[in-house]
């Protein structure tokens, strides 16, 4: 008798090299769960929320470089995957999502838990199909996996539980060959034109994003030839920042002033593998040239003088032989000096010497950076933890940084740390969590214990949705609804069997961070950090300045002048 579709799924996933499936099992997934158990090759890692499963699968795929799998049962079960899958899709990591469905005979009847997942998942996937007939197999499954790998995105297979139990077609074979991504070369004429532009202009600045994943050495070599400052977007930080003598930091809302300066004062901006979205940070007068493997990224956020499609490594290999070495390095020296001054100013804010007895989040992050291993994997929540990670974690070519940088979802740090640690059990994995983000998916803190996952969880406990509050201040709004009444998270950790640490005084922080990171097992560090810490962007618009002034007036009128005193204490009386 032929294998059931469920057993074929399990066997093919094993042949692909899948080690685990993330998710919450349910009756519509019973066939698959039972087949996995019988084969004994693939581990089912149960999470407490399917959103966690999708985030974990995305982190698993990012650190392993291989396709990862998550699954959800019918209706609400697979819908819970959607937020994490949006993040995976926008991050560009290969993930297969198995969205189990109601019985095929009931589709369209308004049955219990009925949705239309093949429609709902389309926007967050490169491939999404409903399987209702065994004759669609094995082609649909093979296609889904190949599409996820080759397009670096999410593939969704929607399949009813009863279809999963049906036998495979008589003619089906268990076949798989790993598809390899091709080199993508730009048009040679475009490369010649780009070389001419770069050779004829003195002040060239690079803007590098996540598309530079495998081209660090080529970027550094070209920057050396051109005496070009190298700016990075957040997605390019781990690939470009380390071992790069021309690095001048990040730009954007949470970036460095030096990165903005280097771009604004350039004659030519060369954008490499980045679809940096913030229009206000692009230079007004420079020629702008963009290279990206995705055609749709070209000119999406700024007008460009020249755009070409190609992978960054191959494109730069074509370009470098055509570049003349520049002798004038005055622009680079100026940019590097600005960067040095900017870093020094940020470092002053990361001090444990607090006149007000507060723990500044910059100091906490600086200590984590200092005592973390050279090949640590960091995850960070959206909001202020991302700001501090961007400014105070140093990348060196071996460390990794994972966050919801494009999708911008709260609560990603904990589940991504779970996925990264399971994928790389011998590496140190540290989650930098906001108190709001951690609480949102706090149920999956129990997953650390259930699966013996030795991740380290840091909570920036400022009793506030901090970044939201800052945005509201900049717009001139009062923000009572950003306040959070938090428990002692270290006691929650202890209650579930995780080692818990809590720090409320600056002079206790350094020794506790060392002990926390050295602990052999899952651990949580709850640090009460300054609530009103400002994270000012490198370019302050008149509207933001005006908005902050309006906020101050409104605060006084509404009897909240004490908040202004707290802002001054935390940002001036340091």
Helix content: 40-55%
The biggest sheet amounts to:
6 strands, parallel
What's the total number of strands? Answer: 18
Strand order of the largest sheet: 2-1-3-4-6-5
Structure description:
With 574 residues, the chain is α/β, with parallel strands linked by helices. It is built from 24 helices and 18 strands. Mean pLDDT is 90; it is low at 544-573. The N and C termini lie far apart (75 Å). The strands form three sheets. A six-stranded parallel beta sheet has the order 2-1-3-4-6-5, with helices on both faces. The protein has a six-stranded parallel beta sheet with strand order 9-8-7-10-11-12, with helices on both faces. A six-stranded parallel beta sheet has the order 14-13-15-16-18-17, sandwiched between helices. The radius of gyration is 25 Å and the shape is globular. The longest helix has 20 residues, at 330-349.
SSE inventory with pairings:
Layout: H1 5-16, E1 20-24, H2 30-39, E2 43-46, H3 50-64, E3 68-72, H4 76-79, H5 82-91, E4 95-101, H6 117-120, E5 127-130, H7 139-151, E6 154-160, H8 161-165, H9 188-200, E7 204-208, H10 216-226, E8 230-232, H11 237-240, E9 247-250, H12 257-264, E10 268-272, E11 287-292, E12 306-309, H13 312-319, H14 330-349, H15 361-371, E13 377-380, H16 384-392, E14 400-403, H17 413-423, E15 429-434, H18 435-440, H19 445-450, E16 456-461, H20 466-474, H21 489-496, E17 499-503, H22 509-518, E18 523-528, H23 542-557, H24 561-571
Parallel strand pairs: 1-2, 1-3, 3-4, 4-6, 5-6, 7-8, 7-10, 8-9, 10-11, 11-12, 13-14, 13-15, 15-16, 16-18, 17-18
Helix pairs in contact: 1-2, 3-5, 3-17, 12-14, 15-16, 15-22, 23-24
